[in-house]
Amino acid sequence: GAVVSQHPSRVICKSGTSVKIECRSLDFQATTMFWYRQFPKKSLMLMATSNEGSKATYEQGVEKDKFLINHASLTLSTLTVTSAHPEDSSFYICGTSGGTDTQYFGPGTRLTVL
Amino acid sequence: EDQVTQSPEALRLQEGESSSLNCSYTVSGLRGLFWYRQDPGKGPEFLFTLYSAGEEKEKERLKATLTKKESFLHITAPKPEDSATYLCAAFNAGNNRKLIWGLGTSLAVNP
């Protein structure tokens, strides 16, 4: 399977600050990247879908000005949580697709906002 | 509304005790179905993709099957390292590859 990395794996920040999470596809070109958040004992909730070089498509209820997504290359996508608040604390996971149906996922980033 | 339901919610097995996990779906225009394994604090790890009824895929102690209404993940002679949450996700022809997720089955295999 494809190898996907995320950085950082864990981040703690103060309320009001911004946090950037990187997602990299290490051994293939990810034409489409997905950003999910996952709450404890819940399934993955899709936040947005992005195609390389295009603006991200956000799911209903997800604030695009709060969760900024950049997919500037075929191997890198970033999610920036702006002005983070405690309710943004969650497990964020990126998914990648290289043009096939299969999504490969990163190891996730645990965000804690104090 | 498209929906994926997994059962049981949790399953505890003794090492070597075979069993099956169920994923039932109601998805219009189903294109395929995925099985993933997720360990605590990690992202999902891809296991199988199934596209058509009657299809079977195998990997080590795991075998996935698909019918027109459900999919099964059979675990033969499980080991403690098979303990994880197993997630099922379906996708249809449209929707820009958006997956419809089940809530998962949490499997614990005791030595």
Secondary structure topology:
The complex is a heterodimer of chains A (114) and B (111).
Chain A: E1 4-7, E2 10-13, E3 19-25, E4 32-38, E5 44-51, E6 57-58, E7 67-73, E8 76-81, E9 90-97, E10 104-105, E11 109-113
Parallel strand pairs in A: 2-11
Antiparallel strand pairs in A: 1-3, 3-8, 4-5, 4-9, 5-6, 7-8, 9-10, 9-11
Chain B: E1 3-7, E2 10-14, E3 19-26, E4 30-38, E5 45-50, E6 56-59, E7 62-66, E8 70-75, E9 84-92, E10 100-101, E11 105-110
Parallel strand pairs in B: 2-11
Antiparallel strand pairs in B: 1-3, 3-8, 4-5, 4-9, 6-7, 7-8, 9-10, 9-11
**Helicity level of chain B, as a percent range?**
under 10%
Mean pLDDT of chain B: 94
- Helix content estimate of chain A: under 10%
Spell the H/E element sequence of chain A: EEEEEEEEEEE
Radius of gyration of chain A, rounded? 13 Å
Evaluate the radius of gyration of chain B. Answer: 13 Å
What's the N-to-C terminus distance of chain B? Answer: 41 Å
Nearest-integer average pLDDT of chain A: 93
Task: Give the percentage of residues in beta strands of chain B.
Answer: over 45%
Please report the number of helical segments of chain A: 0
**Count the strands of chain B?**
11
Shape field of chain B? globular
The number of distinct helices of chain B, counting runs of at least 4 residues, comes to 0
Classify the beta-strand content of chain A into a percent band. Answer: over 45%
Oligomeric category: heterodimer
Largest interface: A-B, 24 and 21 residues
Number of strands of chain A: 11
Largest sheet data of chain A: 7 strands, mixed
Secondary-structure element sequence of chain B? EEEEEEEEEEE
- What structural class results from the helix and strand content of chain A? mainly beta
